[in-house]
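Quick entry between incubations.
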Amino acid sequence: MTDPARDIDALRTQFAEELARASGEPALRAVRDRYLARKGGLVSALLRGLGAAPAEERPRLGQLVNALKQEIETTLDARASEAAGARPPTGAVDVTLPGRVPGTGHRHPLTLLRERIEMIFSRMGFLVIEGPELEDDYHNFEALNMPPEHPARDMQDTLYLAAPVRSLAGSAATLLRTHTSGMQIRHMETHPPPVRLIAPGRVYRRDNLDLTHTPMFTQVEGLVVGDHVTLADLKGTLFTFVRELFGEDRQVRFRPSFFPYTEPSAEVDISCGACGGTGIDCSMCKRTGWLEILGSGMVHPAVFEAVGYDPERYTGFAFGMGIERVALLKWGVEDIRLFYENDFRFLEQFPL
Amino acid sequence: MKLVYPWLRDFVRVTEDVETVARELGLRGFEVASVEQGAHPVIDFEITANRPDCLSHLGLAREAAAIWGLPLQMPGMAMPAPGPAEDLDVEIADTDLCPRYCVQVFEVKNGPSPAFIRERLEAAGIRAISAVVDVTNYVMLELGQPMHAFDLDRIEGRRLVIRRAVPGEPLRTLDGLERALEADMLVIADASRALAVGGVMGGKDSETGPATTRIALESAYFQPASIRRTSKGLGLKTEASSRFERGTDVNAPPAGIARAAALLERIGAGRPLGSLIDRYPSPTRPLQIRLRAARIARVLGQEVPPADVPRILAPLGFLVAEGRDADEPGWLITVPTFRVDVLREVDLVEEVARHFGFDRLPSTFPVLSAPQAPLDPRILRDRLLRQLLTTAGFSESMTFAFIEREAAMPFTEPGGQPPAIANPLSEKFAVLRPSLLPGLIDSCAHNRRRGRKDVQLFETGSRYTSAGEGRAAAFCWLGSAVPPHWSGSGRLVDFFDMKGALELVCAGFGVHDPHFAAVDRAYLAPGRAAEVFAGDVRLGVLGQLAPVLAEARGLPAGEEIYVAELDTELLGRAAAGDTLRAESLPRFPAIVRDVSVLVDEALPAAAVRGTIRAAAPSTLASVVEFDRYQGKGIPDGRISLSLRLTFRSAERTMTDDEAQDAMDRIVAALAREHAAEQR
Ligand SMILES: [Zn+2]
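Done. Structure below.
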């Protein structure tokens, strides 16, 4: 046997739910019909159902149904006038339609990073220089303590020109620069110490394309020369830079390495962001917890001799990094080739 | 270099586990590629080019001895009692390539070697072969001295000559290949022929085998650059050549023989016959270097306690004597000949720093002693270009500086060739780009293939012409002129969109009156190409890409694609310098007059403008086209051109009569010069 009082409450709840879903005048009208129509309306059906109730209960139940009917009418009237009042004024625009975005292009992600790096070093008093991409053997190798047949030349597989081409510096270039160090040699040849500069630019190596190699990539090298420049200064400069670029929470490590043009030489690692430096089950850092980011060292006296600086009086440091590698580590880009495909689906992921 | 941990412990009784040993050596410059646990734990180190001495267990053991302050113990190297000597004559003909050559004759039983040798070799990544070969490899991995065994009975005339090869001299090397040698390659020859490429690989004819009973065991020092050249020339890199080319210890060859003799005796595989033959005409004297305490602090930025210096350097094999110069405290260091990387004081500073610990250095900042020079103007120029072009809707791309010849040719000046790369990775990267456009066009095609309709790309970078390296900016535009929008009014890009972008760039650089002249270019559609000038300097070119070229690079031929390229060096030079003077605003009102004329459709608008300027009084402030109409109501072959002229005087308010008078003269001049009719 049904309980009419409970049916009344159930209908009230049902109405409240349907009303909440109804938006706009047509929907409200449909709700009104469903509940209040004289024929077939849910409220009249409820009233008719009272016939089955005990006679002494009927007056009280009848009052309850009428109260519900009143309530529904009042609520629907209120919502209907509300809906009418919400119509936009004449000439109003639909603010939810898409706007006309001025057709603004994106800078390349490598440019974003390069300019960021330039900014950090500019603030530390570094000059930013530019120079030729075609080089002669002297400026790319010999002046950097890599005479012909030096084994370290194997560390950088070089692309050579079939015939000499005039470089931007006016020299007869025979190769595509393998690093931007040639610019630094040229700067020292023409400027006495002190020197404090970075040299960003494209460099070329005979590397086949794969996930982490392209035959052209972007490097930023730096050089500081003065009366009292030390390895500790190098450490402080690079730690400041790395923390500013990657965040204060990253650990930085400085360990010995080898480059022909620096002595002592050092590699800079940052703690791995993927595993928080623990190395646990981490493919990013090959479970070491560290990621190599920069090569560096104290300028080799032979380099100073090549440019006519007195290696007894002056000391200096140099460093270099590949911007693509920084980008891989910073943004989690998984395939370095994406930087040279110029696919809009990639370019547009980076801010303007 | 694979370091077998128990082998290391033959030399230094380290108590730390293999992971700790790997980490500590890693922090001293020996990068760890991997650590393998197991019965023979192995640490695989990437040894840098300057440390050939550490391509051996002994070398790394010295480092470990310095780290943990442990004594170094050498393995058994006592020469066993020899049997009767055999005849063997040894002569170094080319001492420049081979400064030292040692040989010892042995009688041998060349069976398999015992398990301890085989297991260690295999743990280190070398296949076990036979007692004689295994012992030579064992000694190489242990001491770093490569060795080679000749079958004594295959040496004709019982004579070894170390000489340069005769050009074309044949030799079948151990890998089975017949090789023709070149004149500057060093060979070990007998009385009649070459037996081995010195320091690189032995020959098949004198190879030892199970039947071998007597060997001549070579232990030599070869000149590194020569080995390097030969190895490259033959395309042959071996364990021996990779050690010799970086520099072995010139004083190690006798030790190598002694160690091999001790091992052969121990495993019952052989005994020496006669005594050691050692050809070493001009012995190398070890280098002595002064190391100043002050220099260490000067380079490192950190004082190192004086007692630390001998504590670090002695275990590494350096002889440390207190310096006698009271004014300049320091040491006199004798460099062992195996440390081919230590040539000057700073190399010793590095040794001290490595073992003092880079982690113990303070972090300081270099003192600024002079104000910094301003940014390179070329850096500023490229930044401004990027700003202007992204504002104009172009996204920045980066493409390779080398491209395929076929893509380069249409952009190469007539009769010229793009500079070629001597050793390109592939035909796709064969020549230096004469223009940035081919790469940019390919990037556009890449985006089109992936469903992108509207593409606006630019690149700044280097290009290469007969004049050499230059700098340029290129842009490419296809699809909509304005971003698509629900309100409609979409339009495809046309010539004047691209020209507008160029005008924007010029304005951004303060080049205020660039002018444009029609031009013919093979890669541009005829009648849709122009050059842009600042004064008489040609800044670049723009136009519609030739449809046949677009199609060849995978772009739709039926669509108009616009491209442009500017010489940014010239643009930078044409830029207005920092000479700007602000003008005061006009004090008197302007008078504006419009005029519409019918002229020949082939008459350039610039000619009309020029005639107006010439005929107008100096009060003409500007003239600009605001409509161009052709079609209904206009005779065939003619167009209606409407221009708005603005007159203003700096001294007074102009009258309508003055303006009318000027307009009359202008219309008359247009009629005279261009048969123009006023509408
Ligand atoms: Zn990790």
